[in-house]
Amino acid sequence: MNVTLTIAGSDSGGGAGIQADLKTFQELGTFGTSVITAITSQNTQGVHAVHAIPVQDVESQLKAVLDDFPIQAAKTGMLFSAAIITTVSRLMKAHNIPLVVDPVMIAKGGASLLQQEAITAMKTELLPLATVITPNIPEAEVLTGMTIVDDATMIAAGQALLTIGVKVAIIKGGHLAGSHTARDIIVSTDDIFIVETPFITTKDTHGTGCTFSAALTAELAKGTALREAVTIAKQFIQAAIQHPLHLGSGHGPTNHAA
Ligand code: PLP
């Protein structure tokens, strides 16, 4: 059995964060382990409270998992603080595990999932360890300081992320204004390619970023080559958005079992 790891926040609503990651890991045939960085009180209407887990408890969870499980790929989601990023980076650096960084910053409802001062720690400590980073357009803009409006600026932002030490940058274009497709551009030192699916208009998109990066992590754990892994992850999130569960009165979860 291929073993995966998510280092992320808990979403009590079950559509994003740790819960989305573990469901996705399972759907894609891997055994998921988890390190919880924060507990969010959350439903389809939004984030009502955030409680960061003390950094020593993040550290002991991560040590426990790394010491005993043959983790084949890991992902990070909501890391919340510079102190948590520093701890996670220090421990992950000692292991040679493919790492997908989903640079979670702000929930769709506007709640902050990453403190402002943690952005520098993310860039200097975590990103140099990242095999893949999966920012959406606003996240890529924060990390690079660039303004992204089209394919050329998406590629330029991807290349800027490579200079920080990331091996592969997947710039997710779903947030581009006026877009009729969800067009993602994948940039690595030796390859640039695009994966694109029709844009689906629905309010049930909670946890899309978490689910996509978890699907990618599961495929990397299974040894799937990058291009195919990205394509499978894209298909997985497309199906999850296409078959909503209509749960709750606000932004509902995607369907991980679609
Ligand atoms: N809550 C947690 C714990 C998360 O990790 C994420 C992931 O980005 C979100 C909420 C954001 O969910 P969304 O912005 O898709 O509603």
TrEMBL record:
The keyword Nucleotide-binding applies. GO terms for biological process: thiamine biosynthetic process. Gene3D superfamilies: 3.40.1190.20. GO terms for cellular component: cytosol. Keywords: ATP-binding, Kinase, Nucleotide-binding, Thiamine biosynthesis, Transferase. It catalyses: 4-amino-5-hydroxymethyl-2-methylpyrimidine + ATP = 4-amino-2-methyl-5-(phosphooxymethyl)pyrimidine + ADP + H(+); 4-amino-2-methyl-5-(phosphooxymethyl)pyrimidine + ATP = 4-amino-2-methyl-5-(diphosphooxymethyl)pyrimidine + ADP. Residues 11-255 form the Pyridoxamine kinase/Phosphomethylpyrimidine kinase domain. InterPro entries: HMP/HMP-P_kinase_dom, PM/HMP-P_kinase-1, Ribokinase-like. One of its GO terms (molecular function) is ATP binding. It comes from the Bacteria. Pathway: Cofactor biosynthesis; thiamine diphosphate biosynthesis; 4-amino-2-methyl-5-diphosphomethylpyrimidine from 5-amino-1-(5-phospho-D-ribosyl)imidazole: step 3/3; Cofactor biosynthesis; thiamine diphosphate biosynthesis; 4-amino-2-methyl-5-diphosphomethylpyrimidine from 5-amino-1-(5-phospho-D-ribosyl)imidazole: step 2/3. Belongs to the ThiD family. NCBIfam families: HMP-P_kinase (TIGR00097). This is Hydroxymethylpyrimidine/phosphomethylpyrimidine kinase. It comes from Lysinibacillus alkalisoli.
